[in-house]
Fold each of these.
Amino acid sequence: MSSARIPALVIAALVAALPVPTSHAQTPLGDDALAQAVDADDLAAIKAAGPAVMSRLARLYPLSDETRRVRIAIAFYRLGWKSEEAKDALMADARTPNQALRINVQYALGRVSDDLAVVDVLLDNMQHDGSIVFRDKAACALAYDQVHLRPAQKVHLYEGLIRAMSDPKPDVRRIAALALQIQTGQDKGFHADDPPEMRGPAIGAWQKWLAEYRSQL
Amino acid sequence: MAAAPAPARAQGAAPPATVLVRYGFDDDSVATGPDTFAVFRAAHGRVALSSAFRLSGYRSVEISDVAGNGDFSELQGYFPEQRSGRVFAHFALLTARPEEELNVALAGPKRFQLGKDGIAFWLATREGRFVHVSDSIPKRLAAVRAFVWYTVDMAYDVERGRYDLLIHEEGRDEPVVSLRDQPGAANQAASSVDMFSFISDPLEDVSEVTYYVDDVAIATSRAVAVPPLIAPGRRKLFVDAFDEFRHAEDTRPRCLPPASLADLGVEARDAGAVDGVLAGTAPAAPAASAGVRAAAEWRAGCAALEEGQAAAALGRFDRAASLAPGGRLYGLSGALALIALGSHAQAGERLAAIRGAWPDDAQYAVVAAMAAGARGDLPAAREAVRAAAEAGDAAAGERYYLALLWDGRWREAHEWALASARRQEAGSAAAAAWLERAGDAAFRLRALAEAKELYEAAAAVDERPSLILKLSDVAFLAGDVEAERRCRERYYGSLTEE
């Protein structure tokens, strides 16, 4: 269930575009044509090449300058097809100082992979990156883009977010709690700016919840 | 539409008093729309009436999907929002491939996300088992067998955000699932519901499911009046629904943007710092100038106003005015907060007090018109903004049109909109927007041929969903059944036997 389907409603129809069926037919696309499609943000042409295009984009990625790598990362994000090669290519830039590249790589990683290494690098960026912007965007990626994780893998994500809710940096506590809230729809009474003695019981409630989550696996 | 069985009660639940929607999918006429349901077919997927399997009558709905197509198939239904009482959901489903994922949910105005007024009830099949998401945890239930009907009865206590769940398997007397007092999907009390969804897998796009749904019924324990459908798939015309939405949006006070730094009482040397503050990329430093700190207060006030916290917004705007008395936008923003609070007299007093700071300014006129409209004085709203509108200010021109429209002066609104359209660059989005407004006024005048012409002219420039749906209304009133259906189904899809 995705909010992207709201356009069916009258009110959302005010602002939403007509849902367009997606072509699943696979059409050949040469290497030059693929690079051109990437440069032109022509997702329809890229998508028409089918899931095999992920490997080809992954091979093109390290050969590209940073501008094109941003475009490939955006294409990976929008395609959302799981691909080990795509994940490996993107991971090389998971800590790049280039802001546009870093943000798009962080967003795309969860869309192409269910590897816990992705969750770990995003958790690490969220807690320890020197830039508040990168920390925040890593949390966004953890909140919205881990679409391939299975319930057992989500335990790892939740553990990391709950751990980060005790971080000494208030912004890290805040974004970790927000990511967990977006994932679960709950806050269990946690407020990042409360004193530690008030945050403790809320974190305890989250840990109890996590134990129950684990018990259901 | 053939009658589906009434929703059964889960254990201990009060009896249903009102059936909100009920579908057996056996009638010839299964019109989609904002008050019935919408159909989304994934590429190479299917959502269609089927006589291959059915629990009652002679048809059900088949929903199928293929993996990796970047899309998903869905039957999404709507019913009047329920904020209290017990809501009963009854449906039957049969899956051909239990190992493939399917999802069923009951959600509220925040749609299909976990949280208050989002998903309240979420049932799925994963790896051959039923799963329900309760307290944000996917919990495994009974195994699912292929080609067997399962009848699901759920009784949701809206205030407590908890539900009872019964699932019966065809041919077995005892339920395969019987749960009492379960936390809702995100464990949220008072989480309202107004829609349901039968879908494949909306996130991972790996499901190759084919399943069938029959006998869907949603009821409430409360005695409520459910307005009748007045046109296919809708209880009100699209034109009226869009009008109501626009009225709610246009009468909701929100901050107007500053025309210059001086509006915020910020000096030119602070331009860089205030840019970061207004963009939200940098907080106001403790040592920042009073002007920059005032701008930060104003921005926070605007955010509070957006979130409906008008009292907090007013406090922020007043603090900003104290920090930078030269910032004339703070007084105007305060008036907006007072309008939002319903303090009409105080809003009027504040506007009178700051009138001198806004000589012949359209922004002031717009706020004054909004204040007059909020206290129900539509002629004053119109007059407040007329001069600025006639002088060519775009925001004032739109406000003037709305003041005419809300006051039922449709002929004047129609003329104003046409004149405004002519003032725009031909073929521009702005011209199209005014053509649509002229079409709305023509529709009100029941000049259907002209309304159609205007909507079509606007759509030729900018084919917005609102235009196509309004054309469906025009066709409905004109008795053109085929055009009505064609326009409506562009957005809501169709449910037919293919």
Amino acid sequence: MTVHPRVFLATPILALAGLLDAGYLTLVHYRQSLLICNIGDCGTVQKSQYAEIAGIPIALFGAGMYLVLGMLALARLWQPQRAELLTAANTAIALAGTLYAAYLTYLELFVIHAICQWCVVSAVITVAILLVEGTILLRGITPSPATPSSPRHVTAANRVSSVRR
Amino acid sequence: MATKPRQSTAAQLSRRAQRRAEQERAARRRRQLLIGGVVVVAVLAAAVLIYLNRPKAEQATAPVQPATGHFTGIPQNGRVLGNPNAPVLLVEWGDYQCPACKNFEDLVLPQLINDYIRPGKVRLEFRDFAFIGQESQTAAEAAFCALDQGKFWDFHETLYANQLGENVGSFTPARLKQIAQVVGLDMNAFNQCLDSHKHQGDVQAMTKQGSSQGVQATPSFSVNNGAPFTISSYDDLKKALDKALGAQS
């Protein structure tokens, strides 16, 4: 049970997309005109009392999360011997992010009664990262059946890094 | 004779297989622990974040605050604030639930009053553009009821001072009545007016009118009944007003 080596590149790419999205939302949060409320979105979500935790915009938390996810996923490519721990950390972060994004989407739908499309994009990216990391954790970091006589456990991460070299 | 080494090889092989099976079992246990740990940590982290950002339902019953009194001493004629003979008419379309309109009320209006309204250069008319939700409509109806009693602007100001968020119970009928009390309205007349939805049609008509004139966001403004526009700072408004005032002189 292993995963395709390319799967290990998915998280850095998704995390970059998430970072851009959350970075954009953070900029919007700080730079949005405080004086316009448009029909349809109204900046309702970004202006709501839920848009910040302790004065820090949630979008900035999101950007931080994607940064960490991306860096850990890159570290895994360079440090395959720590792949299991790094994957576990990433899965935990992505799972927490997914649960929290589910809560935020619930707030958008049932409490604030408005949807912020870039927040939905972020939620989808977080779920995608969870699926990738969860798959790697459950399937990827096992001794590869292709190399049973290998003296050490060859992981898919090892193989992808050797492919890259 | 030749079977002995073969046996030992077989034994070796089975020992090796056993060892590998044990290692795999240990690895599986370790991974189960790891996955369990991942789930526990993630759920705890999400729970903390959700707790920090939980809905604050108690807000809807927040005590009603009196307004700041920006309009003291300024002539009020129905929906129009300022000298009725001021050369420039500034119209604002707003929604009482709109946070941007509250920002306008709190941050921009005081400067507008000082620079243009008190000196008698501009008169400001507020029109309803109630689009955010039911409470927008009810609040606007209540403001019409205050208008019936000649206290539109006092009520208007107190509404914004008590805006808590969108569709969170800021402007339920009960809270609107508390606001009316703070403003000092005739409560019998107000309650009757609000409960009978006397001005439901007026609010809807005014919103529709704004829409037909091209209003798409709040607050929107027009100068001397020109095309509606939005602003991103006080300067935008200042420019539009100075232009209109320049054209007058």
